[in-house]
Design brief:
5-stranded mixed β-sheet; about 25% helix
Length: about 130
């Protein structure tokens, strides 16, 4: 299984980013190989459609699940169409997010946030 975690950094001890379309990196963890791979998010530089660009990139990476804080409607539509599961991260390190996933402690996200919600600084919302 391949997990994609939205991240502010490239390392497994980096903090997860709560944004999907505008996160700087995607850290992809292969549970079978026990390997990490960080890829720069192509959507982060998009003046418009960041979520769509990010979603297509994740689909191309052939991941099975995404762990993020929230996701907009267009990105969610693409991700759901590719049968990729979406989970609400806790905003902890990448390693901790993966552990929480394995423990079944992350809730599925089934509702998008309003479009353009990721234009902020990536901090958790109250």
């Amino acid at each position: 299984m391949k997990l994609c975690i939205t991240s502010i950094g490239k390392e497994k001890d980096a903090l997860a980013d709560q944004r999907f379309g505008r996160c700087p990196y995607f850290v992809i963890f292969d549970t079978e190989e026990n390997t990490y791979k960080a890829v720069e998010n192509n959507g982060v530089v998009s003046p418009q459609g960041a979520g769509i660009a990010a979603a297509q990139q994740i689909i191309d990476e052939k991941v099975d699940a995404v762990i993020t804080g929230h996701m907009g409607p267009n990105a969610m539509q693409l991700i759901n169409g590719a049968a990729i599961k979406i989970y609400q991260g806790k905003g902890v390190t990448i390693e901790e997010e993966i552990q929480l996933f394995h423990e079944g402690a992350l809730m599925a996200i089934d509702q998008p946030v309003p479009a353009h919600s990721g234009m902020g600084n990536g901090q958790k919302r109250g």
